[in-house]
Amino acid sequence: MLQKIDHIGIAVHSLTESCQFYENVLGLTCEKKEEVVSQKVRTAFFNLGGVHIELLEPTADDSPIAKFLKNKGQGVHHIAYCTDNIDSQLNQAKEQGCKLIHETPITGAGGKQVAFLHPKSTFGVLTEFCCAPKEP
Ligand code: CO
């Protein structure tokens, strides 16, 4: 079941430059910066009442974020929903005929399990499910 909006992902050319806007204009504090190798991005997280802004800067030309920036420019890239069970959430989407980018979750920022639904099936909004990492 979905629990809340976890974060909004925003594609940017430069984390350094965009962080200044969130820090100096909006007055938010950067919670952490992290490179996510699996998605070829560097990220910066801002927390606002439990909903996060995730800034995404590509680390390689073949990064999905590099492609997004080339096609659409900077801006909102995805919305991520927190779920208590990512496998059943993906199964439900699949059963409803939704096209999945990830059939099984991958490891995203913060070690969370994440998976994306294809924007062709989500009315143009790239949609992410994320879930706290499984206890070992
Ligand atoms: Co995300």
From TrEMBL:
Enzyme class: isomerase
Pfam families (UniProt xref): Glyoxalase_4 (PF13669)
GO terms classed as biological process: L-methylmalonyl-CoA metabolic process
The UniProt record lists the keyword Metal-binding: yes
Residue span, VOC domain: 4-132
Classification via InterPro entries: Glyas_Bleomycin-R_OHBP_Dase, MeMalonyl-CoA_epimerase, MMCE/EMCE_epimerase, VOC_core
Alphabetical keyword list: Isomerase, Metal-binding
NCBIfam families: metmalonyl_epim
Protein family per UniProt: Belongs to the methylmalonyl-CoA epimerase family.
Protein name: Methylmalonyl-CoA epimerase
